[in-house]
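hey all, quick one before standup. I had two proteins in the batch that finished overnight and I want to keep them in one place so we stop losing track of which output belongs to which input. First protein below, input sequence then structure tokens straight from the run.
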Amino acid sequence: MWSSFLSRARPTPERTPAPAVQCTVDTSEDVAVSVEDRHIDISELQPTIVLDDSGDATLLVGTDSAALQPVQVSSTAMTLASPVWKDMFERHRKANGAIEVPLRDDEVDALYIALRIAHLRFHEIPRKDGLTIDALLELAVVCARYDIVKLVRPFLDLYGWAQCHYPDTDAGERCDPAWFYVAWTFGYKDSFQRLTRFIVKKIGLDEDGNAIMDDGQKLPKYMPPGLLGMIQHHLNETNTNTC
């Protein structure tokens, strides 16, 4: 029953705010000042992060409430890495002929990891066990959004980004519900199934009928489609049978 989720199409996740990261920057002030046809004051822009010094495109990264971060990239590298990025550049160029693309919906740290992999800047990505479970979840969200799972997945195995968070359901350790979306996105089928069987024993319903962990912890914002509904259905049936 639970394995069916791993074969379903991955949706575009919702927006989540993101912190800034430490990066090597280009201090040039020669940056573009238009985003989505809206004038941007130069004070809203940070020094440019250069991922390709001959790059032909600039990404403007950040949320509406944060200063925009220009990132100089190669549209060719990104186009080869992701069909979503390819469509993004094509649509943008058709719309206004510019080479600046706003990306306001991505968790910044996770996006930078993906961009550095796409630009072959492997020396700038986290090393062994270098991601927290929350950071790994955000990376899964970015990979699902831009269809770059196959690009990024080898680095999870190479640097152990996922293995250090692999649930130990026998000992009840590292059984974080955030692993659901990570496992579903990157294809960790066995641990997905084991965690599901473990979690359903630790979940109840709050007064509004929403699934909640027995310690009061809410389930993550990002969950595989339909999984939460199936868990709630299982809980409802269990409650009915025990009445």
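OK second protein, same deal, sequence then tokens:
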Amino acid sequence: MTDKIEIAKSISTIWDVMTEEQREKFVNELEVRRYIESEIIFREGDEATHTFFVYKGRVKTEVLGLDNKQHIISMVPARSIFASQSPFGKSAYNATATTTEDSVIARLPNEHVYHLVESNPQIALMYIHMFSERIDTLVRRIQNLQRKHIRGKMADMLLFLKDKCGYEEDGKTINAYPSRKEIANAAYMDISNAIRTLSAFANEGVIAIDGRRYTILDEKKLLWISQKE
């Protein structure tokens, strides 16, 4: 298992501003576990007891929509915190978190996170900044889903994956491998429309598809579709 101190140090936004006493307690409280691909970390509605950090791998968070389908609301890459709102008045997790590949996940009890925020103004500011960014992202996604047609929603979804997960070494292939069903649910469309739209993008030379690998061939055109269609 990877050393806990190494993992704690990798959470640099918190580690770098802690006192030595806080760091020692932080390491003692930190729990680390390996998860296999598609393993559930917690479910929507479970008691919110911990804040989590992806050391290696990737996690998706999903909510159950009114259509009784799971909709992806976030892709959490390595070196990122998630379930970060749970120490602040949330008695239950508001989404289901699942690994999308073999992952190493750390977690910290919420009472300890709350104490850190309460006692360290720099950590409190970091949390305010993080919450602000996530609210902005969520508002933009809701607006896009309400205003855009099918092609615009799909283009927006692919760009969202690119922004959250980045590219593979080729600089074009999205470093995430969702199924057609996952993409359809995240874009709030049925799977047949999702498949047709992805195929149309491929035929137009905007993307290339190889199984679950999506390569963006013309990012400017994809952005134009996202903004105009």
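Flagging for whoever picks this up: The first helix runs from residue 4 to 10. Strands lie at 31-35, 40-42, 50-56, 59-64, 70-76, 80-82, 96-99, 103-109, 207-210, 213-216.
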